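thought: user wants a sequence for this fold. calling inverse folding tool.
action: design(structure=
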C-alpha cells in the first residue's frame, strides 16, 4: 500500500490544477496515493473546487486561513503560487510560522516564481547562477518573495524549492485562444524574444522535484527556444487556417502599460538544470509542438462532448505572456 501524501496549494490556479490532475493519475494507477487541497480567493471558486473533489478554502492578502493547522493537516507537499504583495509573499506573511511547525511531516515546498527576477539582459542567456536584477515592480516583488522563502531553508531547514517560470501556456491558455477571441496582435520589436513553457512541462518539473527534493535549489523552467511573439501568433493562425494579423511596429502598437513592461525585458533562459538535475525531457521543446498539442487536445474534448477541464487562475503577472 502506497503511503498517502497530500498536496496543499496556496493559489489553486492553472498550473496547480494541472499538477493536481497529474497526481490524481498517479493515484488511479496505484503508483501513489494523493489527496489535494488548496486555496482560492472567492467562495464561488471554492465551491467549484469542492465539487471537483478538492479540499478548498478561501485565502487572500486580507483573509488568512482561519484554522491553518486543521486546514493543512496531513500536508506532505506544499505549493505556493499566489502573487506577492508590496512587502513580499502573502503566504509567508500570514503563515510562515504555521508552515515551519508542520515539520518534519512536510517533505517538499515549491514556490512558483518568474524569470522576471533576472530583469533585462538585452537578449543574453541567463541561468540559475545569474544574479537577480529585476527591472519591474513584479520582478522586484518576486525576488523579495524568493528571498523570504529561501531564508527558511537556512534558518529552519524547510525544504523549499524555487521554480522560475517563463511565460505559461497550454490548452485553453495560448495563442490559439487569443486568435479565436480576436485580440491577437503581431507586434514587431526587432531582436526581442519571449521565453515560454508548456504547463505539462512545468508539471513534469514539479513532480520530478517532489520525488527527489533538494532543499534550497532554484530551477529555471522554460522551453528550448525563445521566440518573438509575432512568430508564435503567425504559427497559431496557420494551425487554425486563418491569415495572421498584420505586423505592427512596437512603436506604433499603443500597448497597455503592463504589456509594455513585458517588452521592456529581453533575455534567453537556459533550462539545462532541470534536464540534468531532475531528469526532465521536455514534451514540448518549442512553441510549435506545444501549440500543435494544444489544438489536438481541444479537438479531442470537443469530439468527446465533455466540457473543457481547464480552469482559470493564472496570476496577473503571467497574463501578458500567455498569448505571446
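)
observation: tool returned 324 residues.
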Amino acid at each position: 500500500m502506497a503511503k498517502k501524501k497530500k498536496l496543499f496549494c496556496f493559489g489553486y490556479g492553472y498550473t496547480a490544477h494541472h499538477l493536481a490532475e497529474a497526481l490524481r493519475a498517479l493515484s488511479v494507477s496505484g503508483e501513489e496515493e494523493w489527496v489535494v487541497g488548496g486555496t482560492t480567493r472567492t467562495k464561488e471558486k471554492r465551491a467549484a473546487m469542492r465539487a471537483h473533489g478538492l479540499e478548498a478554502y478561501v485565502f487572500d492578502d486580507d483573509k488568512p486561513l482561519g484554522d491553518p493547522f486543521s486546514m493543512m493537516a496531513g500536508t506532505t507537499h506544499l505549493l505556493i503560487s499566489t502573487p506577492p504583495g508590496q512587502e513580499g509573499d502573502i503566504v509567508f506573511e500570514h503563515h510562515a510560522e504555521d508552515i515551519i511547525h508542520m515539520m518534519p511531516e512536510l517533505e517538499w515546498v515549491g514556490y512558483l516564481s518568474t524569470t522576471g527576477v533576472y530583469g533585462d539582459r538585452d537578449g543574453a542567456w541567463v541561468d540559475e547562477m545569474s544574479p537577480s536584477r529585476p527591472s519591474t515592480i513584479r520582478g522586484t516583488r518576486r525576488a523579495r518573495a524568493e528571498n523570504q522563502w529561501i531564508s527558511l531553508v537556512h534558518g529552519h531547514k524547510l525544504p523549499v524549492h524555487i521554480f522560475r517560470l517563463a511565460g505559461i501556456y497550454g490548452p485553453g491558455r495560448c495563442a490559439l485562444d487569443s486568435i479565436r477571441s480576436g485580440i491577437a496582435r503581431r507586434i514587431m520589436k526587432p531582436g526581442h524574444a519571449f521565453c515560454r513553457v508548456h504547463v505539462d512541462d512545468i508539471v513534469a518539473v514539479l513532480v520530478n522535484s517532489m520525488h527527489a527534493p533538494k532543499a534550497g535549489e532554484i530551477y529555471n523552467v522554460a522551453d528550448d527556444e525563445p521566440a518573438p511573439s509575432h512568430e508564435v501568433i503567425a504559427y497559431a493562425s496557420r494551425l487554425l487556417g486563418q491569415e495572421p494579423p498584420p505586423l505592427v511596429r512596437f512603436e506604433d502598437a499603443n500597448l497597455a502599460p503592463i504589456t509594455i513592461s513585458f517588452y521592456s525585458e529581453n533575455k534567453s533562459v537556459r533550462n539545462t538544470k532541470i534536464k540534468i538535475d531532475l531528469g526532465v525531457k521536455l514534451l514540448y521543446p518549442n512553441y510549435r509542438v506545444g501549440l500543435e498539442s494544444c489544438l489536438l487536445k481541444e479537438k479531442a474534448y470537443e469530439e468527446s462532448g465533455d466540457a473543457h477541464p481547464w480552469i482559470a487562475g493564472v496570476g496577473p503577472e503571467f497574463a501578458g505572456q500567455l498569448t505571446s
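thought: summarizing for user.
answer: Here is the designed sequence. Residues 137-156 form the longest helix (20 residues).
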